[in-house]
Write a structure and sequence with these properties.
Layout (H helix, E strand, L loop, with lengths): L12 E3 L4 E3 L8 H11 L15 H11 L3 H7 L1 H6 L2 E3 L7 E3 L16 E3 L1 H12 L13 H6 L9 H24 L16 E5 L3 H6 L4 H4 L5 E5 H7 L7 H11 L1
Antiparallel strand pairs: 1-2, 3-4, 4-5, 6-7
């Protein structure tokens, strides 16, 4: 499929609402649309232009105020978010926020009446996944990567020692995967599409999590026959599930040899 916005490149992203294909994850990033936008705005002055500069001090203050996140704006625009999450200002300055960690075992969790400082990016992402129609209703708020991996919502209910073992196993698989891709680059279908430019990820058909639970050799999980290139969103929905069984993976590797 070709991009429906005029550049003629391959259409990688499909917009369900408009039923059109695009070469980029947003229509404004299409090279043709960029060119048209540039032509339209060239030579034109902004509506609030004045002799001192493009924006007056009053306008700048209004822009800062409108872009600022407040609890009032969240309550007005995203009431569903407040049904799932508790959020408060960190202090009287109202410059930052605090929320509960989703891991019930954490000292910062709601169960233990704890709070932690949260960034704007985390809040935005949680709102996007929870409120937007295309969201996955997940992307929970965790105070650390350790809490995320140790949480029941990440499907790893292990003690700290087991969690540490999983992290070591993950690093081993990552090294084997990197080496496998380097040696067998031309054997992996569509490997050139991997990355933010085209919106594709490198996925393990038999998941790293499954390999850890079943004590599979990292070399097997990181083998190029266990790798595929899939759309970023599909990879996120797949999460830690496996597309094939361990027996199928081993048979594929044996048959290749």
């Amino acid at each position: 499929m070709k991009c429906d916005f005029g550049c003629g490149k391959e259409g990688v992203f499909f917009y369900k609402q408009s039923m059109r294909w695009c070469c980029s994850d947003h229509w404004s990033r299409c090279s043709y649309m960029k060119e048209q936008s540039s032509k339209f705005h060239t030579g034109k002055k902004p509506w609030n232009y004045n002799k001192k500069g493009c924006y007056s001090e009053e306008t700048i203050e209004k822009m800062k105020e409108s872009s600022k996140i407040t609890l009032e704006k969240i309550k007005e625009r995203y009431p569903d978010f407040l049904k799932e999450e508790d959020i408060r200002y960190k202090d009287e300055t109202k410059a930052s926020f605090q929320v509960h960690c989703k891991n019930p075992k954490c000292k910062n969790s709601k169960e233990k009446n704890g709070w932690f400082d949260v960034g704007y990016d985390q809040i935005y992402e949680r709102i996007r996944q929870l409120v937007k129609p295309y969201g996955n209703k997940k992307q929970f708020l965790f105070c650390s990567e350790r809490c995320k991996l140790d949480s029941e919502f990440f499907r790893i209910q292990k003690d700290p020692e087991q969690l540490s073992l999983f992290q070591k196993y993950y690093r081993k698989v990552f090294r084997e995967t990197k080496l496998s891709v380097k040696i067998n680059y031309n054997k992996i279908k569509n490997i050139e599409l991997r990355g933010k430019k085209y919106g594709y990820d490198l996925d393990h058909k038999y998941s790293i999590y499954g390999g850890f639970i079943n004590q599979v050799d990292p070399k097997i999980v990181g083998h190029w026959k266990n790798l595929r290139v899939i759309n970023y969103s599909k990879n996120r929905k797949k999460h830690i599930s496996s597309r094939i069984t361990l027996e199928e993976l081993r048979n594929n590797i044996i048959s290749f040899r």
